[in-house]
Amino acid sequence: MAQWSINIAVVAEPYFVWPRKDWVADLNGSVAIISSAAAGTPTLEGVRRGQGCVAARFGEFVVVGVYFSPNRSLAELHNSLAELRAVVVGSYPLPVLVLGDFNAKNLAWGSRRTDVRGKMVEDWALETGLVVLNRGSVPTCVRMRGESVVDISFANPALSPRAIDWRVMEGVETYSDHRYIRFDVSTQPSSAPVQQAPSGPRWALKQLDRELLLEASILQAWVSSPDRPADVNDEAGWFQEAMSEICDVAMPRVRPGSARRQVYWWSRELTSLREACVAARHLYARHRRLRIRPPNAAAIEAELYEGYRAAKTALREAVMRARDRAREEMLETLDRDPWGRPYKMVRDKLRTWAPPLTQSLRPQLVEDVVSALFPTRGEHPPPPMAPPPAVPEADHQDDDDGIPEGTGVDLRVAVRRLKARNTAPGPDDLPGKAWVLASEALGPRLEGLLSACLERGQFPLRWKTGKLVLIRKPGRPADFPSAYRPVVLLDEVGKLFERVIANRLAEHLAGTGPDLAEHQFGFRKRRSTVDAIMRVRALTTEDAVARGGGCFGGVS
Hints:
Layout: E1 8-12, E2 23-25, E3 31-35, E4 44-49, E5 53-58, E6 61-67, H1 74-91, E7 96-101, H2 116-128, E8 131-132, E9 141-143, E10 146-148, E11 151-155, E12 163-169, E13 180-185, H3 210-221, H4 232-250, H5 268-288, H6 297-332, H7 341-346, H8 357-360, H9 363-373, H10 407-419, H11 432-456, E14 467-472, E15 484-489, H12 492-511, H13 529-547
Parallel strand pairs: 6-7
Antiparallel strand pairs: 1-3, 2-3, 4-5, 5-6, 7-11, 8-11, 9-10, 12-13, 14-15
């Protein structure tokens, strides 16, 4: 899927079904729908499972995967088709795709003859209002005993004109008797993906060069600047541009859309073996299509088939060795990092990259979720606030008699706290580690900016902008806003300033007062959740002793 940039696929008789959100299977695990993790790909929603069929909404249409075993009796096939018809009809008026291995032959989709199963499937398609997408008579299943067209693609009339370039991939090795089938579905203008606002540059933090970053920050610090900036918004903009230039020097940017098109353990040897396997399959298939066959055709065919089987076995064994070797190398990292990739894999905490939900969900659903999570309240009077002082002129000296000194100390404390965290960056995408390293050279100028903000009672506008991230809550319907938890990511430098303000407030309350209540544990130094639990336990014990019995309490 990654190699061909496929958005969605249906797999009949998969070897196994991954327990991931981008994999959905029927009740028997005999057919699965897989969605891509590429940016902008819709998620699978509204999953419905049956015996040999699974359906899911994918963007603006519904995909139904089907596998009917050839061992099913005609009565069982009739019941399965009735169940499948209910699934398809229940998906209307949305466009519907029905894809899978029906194990039924009919002239309508390219078979050489029509059998009883094929007639039943054809009647079912006519009753359901589906159109066959198969084109030509290229076999979709090639076995030693013969060839057949049993993999069928259906669509309802609303979608069939948009399904183009249907084809059987003859020159690709699949490790199976069945061949890949590909086609494209054109996007209507009304359902075209919305152009997402650029999220800003992203840097490969793992390739950070610390020395280059320090040198670049020193060069930026040489730029002359006033002790107090004339405009805090302009100064905040300068810091963002300067830090972007510093990050460009110290580490490469992550290119958008540079999705991996092959697994990391793939090698040139595997490529050569796959090419040899495809060539052997071509020779075997070409010989079977000969109209004028030589006297020893059966012997030649058996020899070609054995050559193809040997090439396929060699490729499969080489792939297994490469995967095992990669797994062993991963396990060897346990000595260096016991909480790394192997631990996350065992604890099921390892996740493949996926685009943000705000990009993969339907635009209308995103709008509904955001409106419900952040409702607009009309006529909400703001609390009375003192007007901010006027922006001083460039040569104006700030009256900072009421502002305590020591911004440098507060900044170093906030930077030290940022150094211990590994949080996602905000809209500027500047990582916290870059701010920690650059603060050694840019610290004095940043202190001047923060001091000016404190003295004037101003907060730079760009630091108030956040990036919304939606996190899916398990076990809730995907179409409801309550299934998502919002998280707003802020710029790291803005959070530094917030920590400075919080420290100032805590010091003022502790020194001048009135201080916070003794039972306040949240957002206070040297007070943890364990301390709060011990306090609750002590209170319940004292109450139980005083009453001479037990008591019940609830903690939320």
